[in-house]
């Protein structure tokens, strides 16, 4: 690929890195990433991947921007309140880097369309805020054998893991079933430090770039837990579960389930 | 000095760091292992930095020569992808 002068300048700090170079930057430019959620996590992930020059970034989210989002959802602004989050984010990202093709999908992802939506993408990022979506995305990525970078945040704590179907464990190896409704509070009920999704989203975007570049060691088979209050990172090993209902030796979940849409009050 | 075969020549006069190295690196990436890149430049800083960075990247610096009041000519052999 021939870089324009602007691209040479824009990506110069990548091109200088031995692990990236012009060839790595070309891989980034050809990559297609699908981000679920344009909220706390989706914003920084999309922001950094846009800056990095990922060729195509799709974002899916059904919500509109609200004032209460602006404390942490850094792609949105006062003047985009009321606008669909995916459009608000697309405006921001396109202004940052016109090289990137941003696809804004204003809809709720469901078992009926997820496999079709993700089929042309190289890496899937889960920045959703509820368990039904989290399990839907996990199961779909295992079935479609798509790498999934999963992140979650609450209060002062966040977690990240990278799921490579066929190689490492999946989310159900870690937590076989979603917790009962109401057991785990939502951000809306429990609060979240505004910077926290920046840390976790930054880690997710890093994992995505490493998958694209095929460099370094992924958080495969490991759950990284960050405590903002203690300033600690803990890595917990997650073994692959041979009897996992979706990625085990004899899976019992072979098609997408009826994930409870009314699982929690959080949109 | 023995005359080396040059497989590719780039003129990066007028550029400053880090674009001097970025352009040199992009040029060498497109070459085959064992081939020699000739770089014409007019930045003294880059005449020191490019050879250092090329060695860091595993390549061999065959020659660094000041050819007139303003310009340098570097010869770099590509050693790895």
Q: Largest interface, and how many residues on either side?
A: A-B, 11 and 12 residues
Average pLDDT for all residues of chain B: 94
Distance between the termini of chain A: 42 Å
Give me the CATH fold name of chain B.
Translation Initiation Factor IF3
Number of domains of chain B: 1
Summarize the biggest pleated sheet of chain B: 4 strands, mixed
Just name the CATH architecture of chain A.
Answer: 3-Layer(aba) Sandwich
Task: Estimate what percentage of residues of chain B fall within beta strands.
Answer: 25-35%
Query: Rough shape of chain A?
Result: globular
Radius of gyration from the alpha-carbon trace of chain A, in angstroms: 18 Å
Read across the widest sheet of chain A, the strand sequence of neighbours is 3-2-1-4-5-6-7-8
The string of secondary-structure elements of chain A, in order, is HHHEHEHEHEHEEHHHEE
CATH topology of chain A: Rossmann fold
The protein's oligomeric status is heterodimer
Sketch the major β-sheet of chain A.
8 strands, mixed
- State the total count of DSSP E strands of chain A: 8
Count of DSSP H/I helices of chain A:
10
The total tally of domains of chain A equals 1
Supply the number of helical segments of chain B: 2
Task: Characterise this structure.
The complex is a heterodimer of chains A (267) and B (81). Chain A is an alpha/beta fold and 267 residues long. Chain A is 33% helix and 17% strand. Chain A has one domain: NAD(P)-binding Rossmann-like Domain (Rossmann fold, 3-Layer(aba) Sandwich), CATH 3.40.50. Chain A has helices at 5-10, 12-15, 21-30, 42-52, 85-96, 114-118, 131-144, 171-174, 187-190, 196-213, and strands at residues 32-36, 56-60, 101-105, 123-126, 148-154, 157-163, 222-227, 232-237. Chain A has an eight-stranded mixed sheet, with helices on both faces. Chain B has 81 residues and is α+β, with helices and mostly antiparallel strands. Chain B has one domain: TusA-like domain (Translation Initiation Factor IF3, 2-Layer Sandwich). Helices cover 30% and strands 28% of the residues of chain B. Chain B is built from two helices and four strands. Chain B has helices spanning 19-29, 44-56; strands spanning 8-11, 36-41, 60-66, 72-77. In chain B, a hairpin with a 5-residue loop joins β3 and β4. Chain B starts with 7 loop residues before the first strand and ends with a strand. The chains are: A alpha/beta (267), B alpha+beta (81). The A-B interface holds A 3, 8-9, 12-13, 15-16, 18, 21-23 and B 18-19, 21-23, 25-26, 29-30, 53, 56-57.
